[in-house]
Amino acid sequence: MHEANATFNLSSTAVFKITNAAGFLWEHMDDAHIIYDTRSGHSQALNDFAREIFDIIEDKPCSLPEILAALELILERPIEDDLKQQILKTVAEFDKMGLIEPVKSHDENV
Amino acid sequence: MVHDLLSIKRQLAGPGLLMGVGPIMTRISIKFPSVRDDFLHIYKNYPLYDGPQIIDYYLSVHAKNVYRRYLRPQVTINTLMNDDFVPLPESMGLLSVEMGMNWQVAFGCKTHVLFHSGVVEKNGIGLIIPAISGSGKSTLSAGLAYDGWRFFSDEFGMLDAQTGDLFPYPRPVSLKNESIAVMKDWLGNDEPFSREFEGTPKGTICYLRPPASSLEKMHEPVKPRVVIHPVYSPNAKSDIKPLTETMAFFRLVRSSANYGDIGAPAFRALAKIAKECVSFEITYSSLEEAIRLVNKIIDENVE
């Protein structure tokens, strides 16, 4: 439990950036966006909402609160707890897939 | 081109016979006369070459030593690749030849995106039939080939990632168990079939030579237009299910043997197929029904 909380807190303070935007290829399908990572050779499907989150991080490295704030602006309403959990899960999935990585600050090189 | 049977047998027994199947040129050497006879029967009408050629693969079929040539004779193959095949009894030698050639293409081919699929063509419409073993893709591919379609392959779809063309690789169809009788009934003629090889790990296997008209056009590619994933179920009700582009894409990725090796061009090529072709899954319980479903899909979805 302590470990889980520590991980969550660490994620809250981290800034996420796209790992290697130049190495990603995109194809837009009828119901999803397919991303291909040229480094691993893996393909993943993102729905429109996940793609929006990815685009926010791609625009500039940002923390979880900043991602949520950016999405509130897009949706024009506060984000409810259920949706917040989905967003956090999506960001965690991006990290797991190697699409993003946590860094210490907004300076992309730190 | 080599035509004389005696010369063909000498080359096959000696330095090796050059055989071209679609874009692949293989030099094959077989030391066992009985295996040579099986091979020449099932590969009748295939183009054979002599003189300088660019050779893609070498396949040697021989006994491990002189004892295994005569004492419980066993066939060993050498593909000049990283193989370690279990020797088979001489009576199953043709299986070794086919296994070796499959191995060479599956693990050696980097010039084309490979699908584990059947491929056929009619009226310029390329049909890809990806499937896992046991789904009936070989039977369906063979059934279509002997029902007016041009046979490309029952095992390997070969796609040029740059042009988007499918290339024929019309090796003999590998039929297993119940599908052997189905295809013998379908053709009504045993001549294009090999002997039946019983007691293999996959049961009884029999090879079927593709129609001569398909072999004559083995260098003519086609654009893919339709993808059909067959599901054979003996008691199932027939069904046609459309696939979304995303589902179609990931099923193609799953069926490709070298998607990761070819990389970005394969990603682009498969995405193009997923977006530009119509993709369906069919469930069927007989060859006649499967062919009816294929024709229905073509009639209703392809101009």
Shape of chain B: globular
Count up the domains of chain A: 1
Report the helical percentage of chain A: 40-55%
Annotation, overall tally of beta strands of chain A: 6
Low-confidence stretches of chain A: 1-6
Summarize the main sheet of chain B: 8 strands, mixed
Mean pLDDT of chain A: 87
Description:
The complex is a heterodimer of chains A (110) and B (303). Chain A has 110 residues and is an alpha+beta fold. In chain A, 48% of the residues lie in helices and 23% in strands. Chain A has one domain (18-99). The longest helix of chain A is centred in the last third of the chain and has 17 residues, at 81-97. The termini of chain A are far apart. Chain B is an alpha+beta fold and 303 residues long. Chain B has 2 domains: 5-108, no CATH class; 112-301, no CATH class. In chain B, strands 7, 8, 9, 10, 11, 15, 16 and 17 form an 8-stranded mixed β-sheet that branches. In chain B, strand 7 (113-122) and strand 8 (125-130) form a beta hairpin. In chain B, helix 8 packs across helix 10 (264-276). At the A-B interface, loops of A face helix 8 and helix 10 of B.
Give descriptors for this structure:
heterodimer, A: 110 residues, alpha+beta, three-stranded antiparallel beta sheet, 4 helices, 6 strands, 48% helix, 23% strand, disordered N terminus, B: 303 residues, 11 helices, 35% helix
Please summarize what this structure is:
The complex is a heterodimer of chains A (110) and B (303). The radius of gyration of chain A is 14 Å and the shape is globular.
